[in-house]
């Protein structure tokens, strides 16, 4: 858990699941409404601080966006973890999240549907655009050492008042609209956004929306 003390920039105080329980993902299965113990979705909806690791290499095809709760770390070190060919990651109205060491690619837009939320309630989620990682109305977020490519929309979007975010040491490749910082020019809450972009590699095959 010492990783939590290594961030730089505005997201340096993102603690993720430091000091909490360690949860090991052993199954690549996904159920958006009733996730089984041992799956990634089950881990991100647990109450309190959780540091999530992986027991083996796996490719996870998410049926709906993975709604990540506060004080969670998803730590892919020690395994080859692919999130691909389905929905991807949603960080919404939470704080203190670390995403480290994942391969996120071929993310698809998804139709509206029901999904277990970060507080373990089941809520209706609208259409998702197919972002690799979507950060909305959240703070103290660190996205580090991931590989992201070829998603339906952006690779990482930081919007709707999100702040104190660091995006570092990631590899972005084979994508058109790489990154979005801010919901729109007219969304006043994003004028206070604080995001650090550091030590990332862009390309090959990146076209627009790069710092």
UniProtKB/TrEMBL annotation:
What cofactor is needed? Answer: Ca(2+)
Q: Which family does it belong to?
A: Belongs to the polysaccharide lyase 1 family.
Which SMART domains does this chain map to? Amb_all
Q: Does the keyword Cytoplasm apply?
A: no
- PANTHER family under this entry? PECTATE LYASE (PTHR31683:SF74), PECTATE LYASE 18-RELATED (PTHR31683)
Against SUPFAM superfamilies, the record matches this protein to: Pectin lyase-like
Q: Can you name this protein?
A: Pectate lyase
InterPro entries on file: AmbAllergen, Pec_lyase, Pectin_lyas_fold, Pectin_lyase_fold/virulence, PEL
In its UniProt record, a GO molecular function of this protein is: metal ion binding
Q: How is the cofactor bound?
A: Binds 1 Ca(2+) ion. Required for its activity.
> Where does the source fall among the domains of life?
Eukaryota
Query: What are the residue boundaries of the Pectate lyase domain, all occurrences included?
Result: 57-211
* Keywords noted in UniProt: Calcium, Lyase, Metal-binding, Signal
- Give, as in the UniProt entry, the pathway in which the protein acts: Glycan metabolism; pectin degradation; 2-dehydro-3-deoxy-D-gluconate from pectin: step 2/5
